[in-house]
Fold this sequence. Notes:
The chain is mostly helical. Helix content is 84%, strand content 0%.
Amino acid sequence: MSEAAASAPKVADGAFLRSRLGSFLAVFPLGVWTLGHLWNNLAAFKGEHAWQTAVTEYPHPLAQLVTMIVVLLPLVLHTIWGISRMTQARPNIHKYTFFGNLKYIVQRLSAIGLMLFLGAHIWLAMLHPRFVEGHPEPFHHIAEQMRNHTPTLMVYILGTLGVAYHLANGLHTFAMGWGLVVSRRALKKFDIGVIALFLVFLAMGWGVIYALWSAGA
Ligand code: HEM
């Protein structure tokens, strides 16, 4: 057997494992944490103290470090995985339905939007306040920005729209990719579930923005 032939299965295994890992990290912990983060932010309806406790405080400095690693590392790995999937994409408009193709394209457009949104959000709401200003993002600051700085408001409205779509549709492709939902009928039903999930995620995101915008008055 030639050297190339001997190493072929190993290369294929590596690619398969990387593809499974990128997909898995998108849901555990990234998707789960994103939902928790949106939920915690809804504390903005209860006012400054409740929001500050739910979103920016940790029981121990170590818990903060662990959270950063558990969230940021999978995000970086998933982003690298996503970029590599996007560069490998081949148009298949003749093979799948228009709706299927539309979802596929919007998943990738939302990924590009998320890269920009999350880059700005993580820097401005987390890294800059903590490591440059020496304190976590204050409630009054983000609320005032939301109220008085229209570009910030627009970026959050579009960013949370992108997150809601990307995560809801991503759960669909995840379930297909891992063989959790297989039959045509089940997939059709799941399509409706995905629309419901998208609306719930969007209501959470836009609810948070509304609460902050109101508090910024
Ligand atoms: C809040 C952050 C994010 C979450 C929660 C998230 C979640 C997900 C989920 C659940 C999937 C489906 C995985 C699968 O089909 O197995 C997915 C797919 C994808 N994600 Fe993300 N993602 C996030 C950020 C990003 C970013 C920043 C990029 C930038 C490149 C990205 C690029 C992609 C791409 C291209 C796909 C489709 C892969 C494919 O179907 O081949 N994601 N994402």
